[in-house]
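Hey, can you fold this one?
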Amino acid sequence: MNQQQPIFILPEGYSRMIGKDAQRSNILAAKQVAETVRTTLGPKGMDKMLVDSTGEIIITNDGVTILEEMGIEHPAAKMLVEVAKTQENEVGDGTTTAVVLAGELLKNAEDLLDKNIHPTVISKGYRLAAERAQEILNRIAENITEQDIGLLKKIASTAMTGKGAETAKEILSELVVRAVIQITERKDKIEIDIDNIKLEKKIGDGIGDSELISGIVLDKERVHSGMPTKVKNAKIVLINSALEIKNTETEAKIQITSPDQLQGFLFQEEKILKDMATKIINSGANVVFCQKGIDDIAQHYLAKNKIYACRRIKKSDIDKLAKATNAKIVTNLDDLSPEDLGKAGLVESVKVKDEEMTYVRDCENPKAVTLLIRGGTEHVIDEAERAVKDAIGDVIAALKDSKVVAGAGSVEIELSKKLKEFSNTLTGREQLAVQSFAESLEIIPKTLAENAGLDPIDILTELKLQHTNNKWAGIDVFEGKIIDAWKAGIIEPLKIKTQAVKSASEVAELILRIDDVIAGEQKPASPVPRTNEEEM
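Sure. Predicted structure:
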């Protein structure tokens, strides 16, 4: 009897996982990612310390930061990192919620797979549930406008609760709301560009000493010590070309045969630079911000005329200065006119710690502002910045959608309840998938309770009972009891929830449909070739 020869269809070094093994492996990887960030959820969530190969330390409980810094390799696990990134880009907050929900959806799908329910049936059920969830969320949400300052402050405060900046959340939430309202523009609809809020960090003082500047803070010093340190009623010119002698476009050779010619050449160079400075002086400007270099001679003439100047300012900062001071960016000094100048109440040089910085303050109705964040150490200030970014994202999301919901696990329980009612209207196996989706949502209040050291079963039972007549019943993790989250001021933008449900359900469906994983061999990094000197 002939022995049948095995047939290899993949090259050497490739591995393959088929059917249930592939599904189990992917689901397990996703669950592990969710478990990693789960302990950081909520006001009582713990922090993670991440140390990279160079010894750089990050201490945070921000979901997307943790997942990005971990350097995850498993392909299915990477998909959950993408969920966190999408949530971060779309809203700026709720990354942990999205990842934990995705992990729970896959965990519950595994139970359905064990009952021999086909992955495509589960995917269809999850899709139905996700679509209905969006409708329910929009129906139960409350309206908000930019006049509701109190509500907006509560949103910012909720975003910072449980993060490093919590000690100063009252002060910071006030600053965040003021900053967002200031840069809001109403055309056909509300337009808010988050890039118009510049976050500047400086070590020193405490988080509570952070401030909002109605203008821009630049990490730049005056170019000449003879310039004034303060300019009141500043008239600002923004230049995106160099105040220097330009090199020729093509290679050129200049022959000088006598000292007089050399002197004339230098005199002409100085005249060009003096003309540049004169054009600025004649425009009435007393502050110059240049995107490129400023020659020493030009600096001298500007300083002599008591003009404050900074050079090599980033393009993004020049754009922000234009929005803050209402100045026009000038490329050609020949066209400079008084109408191109911007205004600020005060431009001053301030020494912060060991660095000299330039503050452009008291701009009239600025459409770009700076939030200066202070803190005792680098790690404290970095985590405060992450908390402030979340708060800014939340306030902007609330204003753009004009809809908010209560937090503290209340919205997830209400959504779960409504989806269970919806599942009863379905026939076939999709009904089980919709029920699984509804049960998965309970992971958020359950995790909030667990992270606070409460009994999750008791809390969930009480929560469900309260939701028969109060859609905003949530968990007070500090007192360990059920409260009305809306009255308690625990408020979040609707967008956090709609985006988290959308992203989590989509990635769960995607992972469930994979039944074959073909992986190539990881090639080791090629060694750096050694030079002859190193070998000797």
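The two ends are 63 Å apart (CA to CA). Let me know if you want another pass with a different chain boundary.
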